[in-house]
Every structure is written in structure tokens, then in C-alpha cells.
């Protein structure tokens, strides 16, 4: 019996039965001249697209499936997805989690072709997630995971289709208007909180831990660093500029993988907190190694380690800063590793003469959307409409 070239997932085939469909002679004939040892993911994705236009589904080929697996294995190894969960970055953990949810849903619905996934599959999955009550952020993360795995695996990206883009936009609007899902951002650590921390952790009798934590918070606020970037700061990343301060080089950030590092200037008044912590830890600005190290439970002794602090350790310091700077009866949410970044952006937003583009540069954002999102509450409080409400 001759099998059709295009897989119909509604038959709920087993994986072995799916592979059997590759018997279509057109598939192997088309692939016979392809050297899969040198093909790139983008070249392979284009090959799949061109074959589809001719009515041939080459993704049924074991040779092509092996190529997809190879690309994905190389990708996982490159980003550390094969490391133990505690050693993975937050981004990689989130990526793998969202992708695995998609794969499990496909399997539970008898769909064995997740790479590449059809537009219909992605559409049905996103609708399923919406009906399950996930947040707007979760929908965006679902879309991101599907996009990333398809591109890294050398498959056409279904999320690039206008049909999927339109669906995601619609579902996000529905979440806001139907389910009142307005994205909550991290609590901002504003300048007032920084002043409190300097007063309480910057005294003469401060412990090593307090000096480290203060240097960490000051650096986070002054540079708008993300938690993962803060953890990876090394002493040799600082270049002292006489008595004016220092330039901190950021080799790799979330939005910059170009190889050309970003840099930010830190004035002497704030660098003093870094110098003080290093001196108490028996180090100096001329040493090498990760700036922030572990401290013993009593807060008085450093624990030498080769690896940087975990982002979870950074979050714990932010949480302690929240407890120190807020009333015990406060109903707000504690600080997170993003709080200083958001607070600094908000403080810049209300500073005379500072433009959106200036804040984008300070926080190394590539577009205005995130700046506007982080400062939306400030914009509302400082808007001209507030002036209309005053005086009567």
C-alpha cells in the first residue's frame, strides 16, 4: 500500500508509524544531493519551506529528523541546557520549561511532530493555554519557546506566520479585557530605599555581609544591571578613572551578544561602597575574580568559591533589602532581582531633561516598550491630568 507523503496527525500515529511515511520516493530523491554535515539551521529551514511549496513533506525523512536532533543537541550544549538545573541560567530554565510543556501537550494529543510543528498545532496549543487561564506573560513565553526551538533546530518558524501573530495579539487583548490580566512588574527600588540602605548597612560597625549587600544594591541601582549580570561582575571589569570614579565593562548582557561589551560609569561616591567591601574581604580593586562572593552565616567571614553567586542568592539580598526599607505592615510585593533596574528607570523618568532614549541607553534596552512598561505608573502619577485634579 502506497502511503501519502503528507502526515495527517489526526490518525494518532505512533512515532514509528510516522517515520514509515518517509517511504515517499520523492523525499529521498530530493534529499539525496544534500550534504547534511555542512548544512546550517537557516539553510535547512529554507529547504523545508521550498519542499512544502512543491507539495513534499521532507520532515518525514529520518535523515532530516537526525539533522534536527543534531542541531537541537548542539544548541542545548551551547546554552547549558544539559547542565544540572541549579547551574542553568534563569533564561535557559524558562526556555526548557515552556518548551517541555508544549511537547507534552502535543504528545497527549497524538501529535508527534513538534519539530517542525504545523501552524494548526501551534494555533490549537495557544488557544488551549488561553482557555487554561494562563497569564499574558505565559502566552508570550510559550510563543518564544516555540520560536527559539524551531529556529535552532533548522525548522520554519510557525510563530512568524501572521496567523499566529494575530492570534497572540487577540488572546493578549482578551486576557486584559475579559480576565483583567494586567501584567504586574517587580516592585521598584527607588532612590529613597537606596538612602535607607546606605544608612543602615553603611555604618562603621557594618558586618562583611552588610558591606557586600550594600555594594551589590548600589551597583545594581547605579548601573541598572540584571540579576544574572550582577552575579557575573568581576573585579577586573572595573577600570579606575582617577578620583572621578570607575568604568564598569559588561562583557555580555541579555540583549548584547555582539562581542562588543557595554560599559557604564560609576561615580567615586558610589565606588566607595565597592572599595570598602573589598577591603573588608581582604581584597582590592587590583585583584581578579568575581566581585561578590559568599559570606558565612554570621556575616563576618567570606567563603572563597570559583563560581559566581547564584541568581537566587542575589534575590535573597533584594528580599532582605525590602524587609529593611519597608514597613512590616506593608502589603506590597518584596523586591526582586529586577527591582533596582526598574526603580532607577523610574527615577530617571521624572528627572528633568532625561529622555526615553537616555533611559534606554542607561538600561541597555533596544526599544522603548520596556522603558514605558517599567515607568507607566510614574507617568500616570506625574501626568498633566493630575494637575487638573489639584486645587478643588
From TrEMBL:
In terms of PROSITE patterns, this protein maps to: TYR_RECOMBINASE
Which keywords accompany this UniProt record? DNA recombination, DNA-binding
Keyword DNA damage assigned to the entry: answer is: no
Q: Which SUPFAM superfamilies match?
A: DNA breaking-rejoining enzymes, lambda integrase-like, N-terminal domain
Any Pfam family = Phage_integrase
Where does the record place the Tyr recombinase domain? 192-388
Q: Establish whether keyword Transcription regulation is in the entry.
A: no
Q: Name one GO biological process term.
A: DNA recombination
GO terms of molecular function: DNA binding
Q: What name does this protein carry?
A: Tyr recombinase domain-containing protein
In its UniProt entry, the species of origin is given as Aeromonas veronii
The lineage, from the top, is: Bacteria, Pseudomonadati, Pseudomonadota, Gammaproteobacteria, Aeromonadales
Amino acid at each position: 500500500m502506497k502511503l501519502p507523503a503528507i502526515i495527517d496527525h489526526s490518525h494518532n500515529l505512533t512515532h514509528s508509524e510516522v517515520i514509515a511515511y518517509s517511504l515517499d520516493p520523492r523525499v529521498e530523491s530530493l534529499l539525496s544531493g544534500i550534504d547534511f554535515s555542512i548544512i546550517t539551521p537557516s539553510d535547512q529551514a529554507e529547504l523545508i519551506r521550498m519542499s512544502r511549496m512543491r507539495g513534499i513533506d521532507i520532515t518525514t525523512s529520518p535523515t532530516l529528523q537526525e539533522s534536527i536532533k543534531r542541531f537541537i543537541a548542539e544548541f542545548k550544549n551551547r546554552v547549558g541546557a544539559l547542565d544540572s538545573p541549579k547551574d542553568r541560567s534563569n533564561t535557559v530554565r524558562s526556555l526548557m520549561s515552556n518548551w517541555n510543556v508544549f511537547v507534552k501537550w502535543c504528545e497527549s494529543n497524538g501529535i508527534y511532530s513538534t519539530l517542525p510543528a504545523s501552524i494548526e498545532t501551534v494555533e490549537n496549543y495557544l488557544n488551549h493555554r488561553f482557555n487554561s487561564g494562563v497569564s499574558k506573560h505565559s502566552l508570550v513565553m510559550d510563543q518564544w519557546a516555540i520560536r527559539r526551538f524551531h529556529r535552532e533546530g533548522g525548522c520554519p518558524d510557525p510563530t512568524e506566520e501572521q496567523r499566529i501573530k494575530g492570534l497572540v495579539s487577540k488572546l493578549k487583548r482578551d486576557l486584559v479585557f475579559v480576565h483583567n490580566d494586567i501584567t504586574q512588574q517587580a516592585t521598584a527600588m527607588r532612590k529613597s530605599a537606596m538612602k535607607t540602605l546606605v544608612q543602615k548597612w553603611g555604618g562603621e560597625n557594618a558586618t562583611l555581609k552588610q558591606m557586600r549587600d550594600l555594594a551589590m544594591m548600589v551597583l545594581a541601582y547605579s548601573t541598572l544591571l540584571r540579576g544574572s549580570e550582577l552575579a557575573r561582575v568581576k573585579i577586573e571589569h572595573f577600570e579606575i578613572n582617577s578620583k572621578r570614579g570607575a568604568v564598569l565593562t559588561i562583557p555580555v548582557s541579555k540583549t548584547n551578544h555582539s562581542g562588543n561589551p557595554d560599559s557604564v560609569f560609576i561615580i567615586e561616591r558610589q565606588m566607595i561602597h565597592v572599595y570598602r567591601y573589598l577591603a573588608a574581604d581582604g581584597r582590592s580593586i587590583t585583584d581578579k575574580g568575581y566581585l561578590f562572593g559568599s559570606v558565612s552565616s554570621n556575616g563576618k567571614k567570606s567563603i572563597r568559591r570559583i563560581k559566581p553567586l547564584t541568581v537566587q542568592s542575589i534575590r535573597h539580598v533584594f528580599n532582605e533589602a525590602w524587609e529593611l526599607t519597608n514597613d512590616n505592615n506593608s502589603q506590597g510585593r518584596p523586591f526582586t532581582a529586577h527591582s533596582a533596574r526598574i526603580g532607577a528607570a523610574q527615577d530617571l523618568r521624572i528627572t528633568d531633561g532625561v529622555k526615553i532614549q537616555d533611559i534606554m541607553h542607561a538600561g541597555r534596552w533596544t526599544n522603548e516598550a520596556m522603558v514605558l512598561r517599567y515607568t507607566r505608573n510614574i507617568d500616570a502619577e506625574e501626568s498633566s491630568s493630575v494637575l487638573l485634579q489639584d486645587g478643588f
